[in-house]
Records
---
Amino acid sequence: MTAVVFDLDGTLVDSEPNYYEAGRRVLAAYGVTGFDWERHTDFIGIGTRETLQALKAEYGIDAPLEELLAGKNRHYLELARATTEVFPEMRLLVERLHADGVPMAVASGSSRAAIEAVLAGTGLSGYFRVLVSAEEVPHGKPEPDVFLEAARRLGADPAECVVVEDAPPGAEAAHAAGMRCVAVPYVPATADAPAFRRAGLLFPGGQSTFRASEAYDFVLGRAGAWG
C-alpha cells in the first residue's frame, strides 16, 4: 500500500508569511527588533518549538519557552484564520490521490491547533486520515519521528510512504525514515541542499514548477498514471 505524507507549511499552503509575522510580533513583545524575512527563512522546515528555543538563546530572552510558544501560536492562529492560500497544484494532487483512495497524512512542525485551523480554513481537512504535530513526538524534523508516527497511524510500511516536502530538514527526515521524497523547495536557494539531492523527485524551481501530474506518477511508481 502506497501512502503519502505531506508537510503543511510551505508545502501544501503558503503559510510562511503568517509564521514570519507571528514570530516578528512575539519577538517584538520582548524587545527584539530587526527580525527580518531573511532570518526567518533560516528556520523554514524547523518546528516551532525548536525555532523559538534557538531564538530565545540568540536574543537572550528570559521568558519561559512555553510562554513564547503560546504567544506565537496565538498570533499565528489569528493570521491563519484570516487568510491562508493553498498552492493550486498541491490541491489538485491531494484531490486526485483522495479520489483514488490513497491514504494521506499531514506531518508538521506546527502545533496541532495550527494544523487543524489551516486545514479547516482551506477546505483540506476532509482529505487527510491522519494529522501529526511535532508536539506529539520526541523530536521534530530533521529527525524522522513525525513521519514514522504518521506511517504508524496510517498502518503503512515506511518504505511504502512518499513524503512531500519544501525544506531540507524535512527531506532529511524523510530520508532518515526510509521514505521516498518529493521535494518542492520553498526557498529556491536551497534547491542544491544535500537532502534535496537525495529526493526521488525534485522540482528545483519550487511551487512555480511543481506539477501535480508528475508527482502523482512518481507516487504510483509509473509514468502516465495521471492520464
---
Amino acid sequence: MRSTTTDTAADSSPAPMGRRERKKAATRQAIADAALRLFLERGYDAVGIREIADAADVSTTTLFKHFPVKEALVFDEDAEQETRLLAAVRERPKGQSIPAALREHALTARLASAEVDARFTAFINLVAGTPALRDYAQKMWLRHATALAQAIAEESGLAAGDPACTALAHFALEAPRAAYGHDDPRQAITRAFELLEHGWSALAQGGA
C-alpha cells in the first residue's frame, strides 16, 4: 500500500526520472491503485488478475511485468519501504543513536501514514483477513528485518548476525505494528523505543 505522507528519510532530492521511467511508475501506480480498490470493494480472493488489468487499462502481460505475483499488488511499496528503513539508519544525523533514528522513522513514516490515510484500517483488515496476504506480509517483514539487522551491525561495528542487532531490528519493526491498537499510538511507539534505547545504550557501554 502506498503511503500518502512523505518520509523525511527519503527527502534526499533524488535525481528526476526520465519520461520513460515516469511512464512506468505511473503505470505501476495505476495498477496498484486499481487492485487495492477492487480488493477493498470485493475481497482479495474474489478479484481476478484480468479484472485488475482491465481496470488499470493495461494487459495482463504488462501487469505481471510490474507485479510478478498477485500478492505483490497489495504491497507495491515493498522495496521502497525497505530502502527508506535502511536509509533511516545509514543516513541518520551525526550523534543520533540507531534506536532514535528508527523511532523517528516509525513516527514520521509508518505511524503518520496510518493516521492520515483513511483506507489504512481497511487495508489492515484486508491483509489480516486474507491468509495469502498474511503469509506474504510475514515474508516481507522477515526480509526487512534481516536487511535492517545487517545495516545495524554495519553501522555499529558489530559482527554480521549478532543477536543484539537481530533483536533490535525485530523489535523496531514490531513496535509500530503493536502500537496501532493503543489509544495514543504515538506515545506507545515512543515508550517502546525508550526501552529499546536504554537496552541498546547498555549494550554499547558494556562493549566499550
---
Amino acid sequence: MDRRLLLARWRVTLTDNGLFVLMALCLIPVWQDGVTWRNGAESLLVVPGVVALALLAAVAQCTGLARGSGLPVTVHADDDTQTLTLPAAWSSEDQDRFRAALLASGRTAGLEETPVGELRFQWRPLRSWRFVRATVSRDGTTGGVRLDIHGGEEQKGRDREQPGRHGFRLPPGSSFVALCQLVRLAGASAPRGGARTP
C-alpha cells in the first residue's frame, strides 16, 4: 500500500468527516454543562480517538481499491484519468467476447464502436448511477489493448433515463476502481508496470 495515498486519504477523511465529528463530540458537553475543566480534558481525550478512526477508515478505503485485480495501488489511484495497456493483442473474436461481457455486466451504458475499432462506453464503478467514460482501443506502438478511463466530471441524474437537477461528482478513486473492474472483466493478468496515469 502506498503511504502517500494512505496519508492523502487520511487527510481527506479527517477534514471532510473527522472535524465535524470532533467538533460535535467536543461541543455537546459544553452545550449541556457549560465550559468546565472536565469538559476540556474530555475533549482532549476525544481527539486521538477521532484521528485513529480516520486512519482506520483510510486504510480500509486503500485496501479495497484494487481488490482482486492485481494492479498496484499507488498515489495516482485517486486521479480522475487512468490509463493501462494490456500487453496481449486482441483478435476481433476477443473484442466481440469483451463487448458481450460488457453488455452482460449490467454496468455499461452507451456502448458504441467507432470506425477505427475503438469501443466507447460509460461504466458504472459504484452502486449508484454515476458513470465514468471508458475507451478500449489498440495501442499503436505496442500492439496491446489500451484502456482509458475518464471520470471527475459531474454526473446528472439518478439513472440513465431521467436526468436530474443536481450534479454529482464521483468520489476519488472511482476511475481506478473502474480500471480494476475492466481488467478483471477482460480476464487479463495485470501487467508488471501497473496503471499509468498521463
